[in-house]
Amino acid sequence: MVAKMDANFDWHQGSDADSLADNLAGELVVKLSEAIARNGIAVMALSGGSTPKPLFKALADHDVDWSKVVITLVDERWVPETHELSNAAFMHRYLLDALPDSVRFVPLYQPAQSVVASYSAVLGNYCVATSSSMDAPRPFDIVILGMGGDGHTASFFPDADNVAELVDPASSSLLLTCESPTTQVPRITWSLPALLNTQFLALHFTGAEKRRVFEQACAGTDATELPIRSAIFQQQIPLQVYYAD
Ligand SMILES: O=C1O[C@H](COP(=O)(O)O)[C@@H](O)[C@H](O)[C@H]1O
């Protein structure tokens, strides 16, 4: 008999989206400083979409040694930065452009390559930025996930052909591709094992509609149906849920 795994999360409720973002940004600054003190470097994977806008703005106001911070994306749409769907462009607009030039950013989109062919280039850039080797890339210190109304997180979409692989905690890949009827363009995403290999894992979302999706996710266990379950039902690292109505 397979034992039923419990949901593994702590709930942090904000009074509104802005104060939630301020609280989470304050926590991230502590985690960044701890990682820098421990390793001389802090590595943070952040989500795109629209929810993180106030978080990015709040984060940029903090005094951190940004020259010791490496930032990458949890996932990306396979489009250049000039495209309106680019998560990298979103991150530049609301975070990177407000930080000192010394901060290191590892984008996931590689011009002039197919998404699958880009894995080793992305990983290579990540390893150079984090002073680690391709055999043992440095784990993340911080991962901030988002969630869509369909229960997707990262680019783990429920209607993707490869959804079982996307939510597989034993996947041997660090990067994966996602194509589905709802994604508009192909996507690249860090895999579930890569994202769970972190010191701090948070899920940041707002609004009653998404809260219902989260509650529905907690009530079942099939992660191919609601991929956010892959972050809720795992025993590697407690998920810190940051929510406001
Ligand atoms: O497509 C994406 O959507 C999710 C959630 O986005 P939001 O606009 O509803 O906040 C995001 O977490 C993911 O990184 C992004 O690529």
TrEMBL record:
Single biological process term from Gene Ontology: pentose-phosphate shunt
Swiss-Prot/TrEMBL keywords: Hydrolase
PANTHER family assigned: 6-PHOSPHOGLUCONOLACTONASE
Enzyme Commission number(s): 3.1.1.31
Similarity annotation: Belongs to the glucosamine/galactosamine-6-phosphate isomerase family. 6-phosphogluconolactonase subfamily.
Glucosamine/galactosamine-6-phosphate isomerase domain span: 16-231
Matching InterPro entries: 6-phosphogluconolactonase_DevB, 6PGL, Glc/Gal-6P_isomerase, NagB/RpiA_transferase-like
Statement: the UniProt record of this protein carries the keyword Hydrolase: yes
SUPFAM superfamilies: NagB/RpiA/CoA transferase-like
Role summary: Hydrolysis of 6-phosphogluconolactone to 6-phosphogluconate.
Molecular function terms from GO: 6-phosphogluconolactonase activity
Enzyme class: hydrolase
Swiss-Prot/TrEMBL catalytic activity: 6-phospho-D-glucono-1,5-lactone + H2O = 6-phospho-D-gluconate + H(+)
Protein name per the record: 6-phosphogluconolactonase
Transmembrane segments: none
Pathway: Carbohydrate degradation; pentose phosphate pathway; D-ribulose 5-phosphate from D-glucose 6-phosphate (oxidative stage): step 2/3
